[in-house]
Amino acid sequence: MRPHLQSFVAAVRGKGAGGVLLCAIALAGCSTSTPVATPQFVITADQLVGKWGLASYRAEQDRVRTQAQAKAACSNPYVIGKGANGGVMMHLADQATPQELFVKAASDGAVYIGPQGPAGDPHDRRVLSYDPTSFTALWVDPDAAKRYGTLVYVRCGAAKS
């Protein structure tokens, strides 16, 4: 195994189906001459499960204010549940009922959350940033992205930074 992938595999070992998927995608690149980008960050489904304050913004200058609004939204949190098949239970754009979605990595290193299938599907959200206390995402579908803006999720009960 390539040395740069050994640390990646170690990072996802024991992280559930989402981690296994990311590892499989990275290892698939070992058999080709085209390099596969390392994901920008590693997210597992288990890391997304919990209660989140949720808000959105459309203009970059509103990001800091929106993060504060997302923290305040913990009084009525968005709950991300564990799915039966290793994913997470979340809503798709314009859907009233949550369904099982999966963490997916694209060959360029981008990370997505969406239904099973290729990363970057129009129903996916692209995760723009992630840390254990928050993440931001944007719908791939331009119409949904325009209507919903950039989504900011802040973990409820997370330590203040």
Automatic annotation (TrEMBL):
This is Lipoprotein.
